[in-house]
DNA sequence: TCCTATCTGCGAACAACGTTAACAGATATT
DNA sequence: AATATCTGTTAACGTTGTTCGCAGATAGGA
């Protein structure tokens, strides 16, 4: 831990700052993550944060990487669908616990996000599919995880304010007798296998 | 066109305002859509816009609805996969022409967005699947369209700044000899059919 | 030991944003 | 003609991300 550099030692760390920002976003959404609020949460001043991050977007990237570090990647077992499904389920939980994840623009991928891609490449390597197809499959898996995590009662019935019973009869009837509940348990597995076989052609 | 109401007539329309906002967003992203810039584009003042929209978020909703109006929904032909694929391809084009579409939070669905859902319900009605499954299938189709539209050279190689050849060897090798190009033509069809059959179980 | 270079964190400030308040002018109904 | 009501504008408020200097602290070199 030798700094070997003049000047006082830094009192904060990027993971610490990102963790405070994540806690704020979990409570009040991404709008609650302001430079001033994060600074107050870690006990410092807003301009001091710019000694650690170049911009707010970079801080958001650190947040994404921090929560992505929670993913546990099992050793590739040969059952590539099962392996991928296990991690995708974790991603769904991640998106459900941190509903800001999908909106956090990842302008630059953090190391843990890259770890996930690396693991996915290793899992799908035995298939011998072209790398572009593998990347597309992984991107689709990520997107499906985001969709499943964001689903459910994300917003109230205000979304259907413009619903007109005369113009949208089928939709009106469908919403009347069937509120959109959480997706079925095995739906993610079915969709994921459907996507993977469609993309990788196996 | 009788207003039958005192006071001067309004000089603007919501579609006109939304069209100007769409043009701004197409050029400079969603950040370029500020109340002042939109007002300048339509030749008025920022506070005057609040006579037409209650908030900036509502304006964003009008933008989403305006571009969603471009969707052409064919008469259901019985070939529900083909019908759905035709419209989903249009949605991909829409997301590619308006890359801000995915980021525009739809707090309230406009009439044309509801039209799309209504049409989807009608297309999938002959299957006799539970309404929740149909809604899930349509939501997934929308999400896949957004994913396909957002794919490609959306951002430069800055995304992989944190790539470490020692930590991510497979990824490094994959990126070296295969730049992520646009998805194959028939990929969307394969993925969509895979998802639909997985969700609707047919 | 003292000096100096260099780093940290802070107070003030700036431009831009969404939004509101109060007001002048225009217009259709009475 | 009088009145009520709607429109659009100017000014302003609070908040945001970000930058500018500056005071203070600290480690290495003399």
Automatic annotation (TrEMBL), chains A, B:
Pfam families: TetR_N. The keyword Transcription applies. InterPro entries: Homeodomain-like_sf, HTH-type_TetR-like_transc_reg, HTH_TetR, Tet_transcr_reg_TetR-rel_C_sf. Residues 11-71 form the HTH tetR-type domain. It comes from the Bacteria. Keywords: DNA-binding, Transcription, Transcription regulation. Residues 34-53 bind DNA. PANTHER family: HTH-TYPE TRANSCRIPTIONAL REGULATOR RUTR, TRANSCRIPTIONAL REGULATORY PROTEIN. This is HTH tetR-type domain-containing protein.
């Amino acid at each position: 831990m030798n700094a070997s550099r003049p000047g006082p030692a830094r009192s904060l760390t990027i993971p610490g700052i990102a963790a405070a920002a994540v806690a704020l976003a979990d409570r009040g959404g991404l709008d609650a993550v302001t430079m001033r609020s994060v600074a107050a949460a870690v006990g410092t001043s807003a301009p001091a944060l710019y000694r650690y991050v170049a911009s707010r977007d970079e801080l958001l990237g650190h947040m994404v990487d921090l929560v992505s570090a929670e993913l546990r990647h099992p050793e590739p077992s040969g059952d590539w669908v099962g392996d991928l499904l296990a991690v995708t389920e974790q991603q769904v939980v991640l998106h459900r616990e941190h509903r800001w994840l999908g909106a956090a623009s990842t302008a630059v991928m953090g190391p843990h996000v890259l770890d996930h891609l690396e693991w996915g490449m290793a899992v799908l390597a035995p298939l011998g599919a072209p790398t572009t197809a593998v990347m597309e499959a992984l991107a689709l898996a990520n997107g499906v995880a985001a969709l499943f995590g964001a689903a459910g009662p994300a917003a109230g019935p205000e979304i259907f304010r413009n619903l007109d019973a005369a113009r949208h009869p089928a939709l009106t009837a469908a919403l009347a007798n069937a509120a959109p509940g959480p997706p079925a348990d095995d739906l993610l597995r079915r969709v994921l296998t459907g996507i993977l076989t469609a993309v990788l052609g196996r």
